[in-house]
Amino acid sequence: MTGKLTHAEPGTASPPARPRTGVPVRMLAGVLARRGVQAVSVALLVSVLCFVITLRLPGDAAYRIAAGRYGSDLVDSESAAAVRTELGLDRPAWVQLGDWLGSLVQLDLGRSLVTSRPVAQEVAFYLVGTLQLATAALVVAVVLGTGLGVAAARRPGGLVDRLVAVWVASVRAVPPFLLGLLLVVVVSAQLGLLPAVGHGTAASLVLPVTTLGAGLSGLVAGVTRDTVVEVHRSEWVRFARTKGLSERWVVLRHVVRNAAVVLVPYLGVQAVVLVEGVVVVESLFSWQGLGHALVHATFWRDVPVLQATALVLALLVVTVNTVVDLAGVWLDPRPRGAGVAS
User: Fold this and answer.
1) What is the mean pLDDT of residues 2-10?
2) CB 151 within 8 A of CB 165
3) 8 pLDDT above the threshold of 50
């Protein structure tokens, strides 16, 4: 060989290349198979529970449905009896449940008992509203929370760290429902800057997104700060610095990726909590999402809409958990399979 070996200056050298083991297909297939079984089990359990709970609610379901169709002032015993006969509400409960499960297997969600529109269309409309609200709130929480957490972790015990600790304690101490009411009273009623209720406009999205995102950002900031501090103090990060890697490479290749292994599952849990929290916030701001639909379907005894809405919420949780599992497998920097053996 006639070439000459050269040594780069410490702090400017690129990290040494290392073999990429990739993510084994069997690991991904295992995650998808487990979550698929969970989705089917959740769909069956939620459908049966919603049906049983609806049957146990007080009052006559036929009167409720007739009131939703014709108005409370126009309902009498004859109209309620007509609704009962039309919808087959006098059939045995197990027959009604069997009809719903049979239709569900064929991906047919039926029609609303109140509006007579296809349930799939109604649920799709409300699902878009919920996804808009949850996605916007999650983006606000992640951007604000990770930014504050990383800033606080740069100097533990410093001024920024103490200010971030105050922010985390403040937003965690206020429940989302109370924060939403404060925003409505101050921002909407007193200052008149934004609408208190509404749907479909950017202005009507600000207050509910702030209500959900602010509280979640405090949790994300706290976990991000602790995780980044712990990773910075780890042996592999100190070893990376002794190899002469620049601080930029240390952060990008060792701190960020290892911190993400902890943060992504945590964000997945918070996304699930967020999906549950939108039920309250949507009702508070009259935002037309799945939570809004769930409340109205329960009030009017619209069983197909109630079952479909609860089913979509449950499957949304399973989907979030699946994405988190796949992201965790992909982000985990530890070698796998043949890489471990070699």
Assistant:
1) 41
2) no
3) no
